[in-house]
Amino acid sequence: MISMYLSGFYEASRIIVDNKINIPVGEPDQSYNKWGLEGRLDVTLYNRYHMLIFTPYINYSRQNEQFLNNLLRDTVKYVLNLHPIVNLYEKSQIETVVLPVRGAALPNGIASTDDIKQYLNYRKVLRPVTVRETVGMSIHSQLVTGNIGCGFEKYIHDPVNPLVFGIEMLLTFKYEFFKYLTYTLKFDSFCSLLRARGKNKESYYFRSELENALSVRLTDILGFSLRHRWYFYQNLSNNKHYSNSQIVTSLDFRMDFKN
Fold this sequence. Notes:
The protein is mainly beta. It is 4% helix and 68% strand. Strand 10 (164-178) and strand 11 (181-194) form a beta hairpin. The radius of gyration is 19 Å and the shape is globular.
């Protein structure tokens, strides 16, 4: 089974970020209004007891010469189907950027050694890459689907950091008011529990993404949606945080191919 989703959208975003915190992979550093493109492809192979899902995903946009969303993600999920609702799963995920990014934002001025370091990092062109490996329990019901598991995240490129162990939670609630009107709530989080070895302050953190969406289906393949997306990241070592609140209106194209 193959499911394809493609969306073009207009977005208004308000960014709140503390000084000297590393911006999470694929997230913007300034508030903006912009146009963008989001796409996802779900390829599912399954039989009575096994299910394998491949999900490449892209969220890319820019305003003039500035990247706003610049995320490329690939996920492979395996589910062992032994129960109608609760089953075991294993998931591998890799995230990077579509195009290379600057190492830091451009400082307002040069008044200290920290400003000099930030300027030197601004001149660097980076392609950060993170991986996440988790195992746990998969839930599937008429209204709620999701995963609750444990595993690790790791930066493997620009920079290379130690493993970070933690708990993953992904939940999706979907309710169909009418045949053409659907409400969807999505929650994705990862919280590190144990500090990895080393002195890296970024190894102890909490990240989450919450999305509320109201979708109107115009035809079998075409629809319109209004979404609110909130991304939150906090460094638990020093309590510095990053947040990104977005309101998105989009025209959506969906198509399913079943064998």
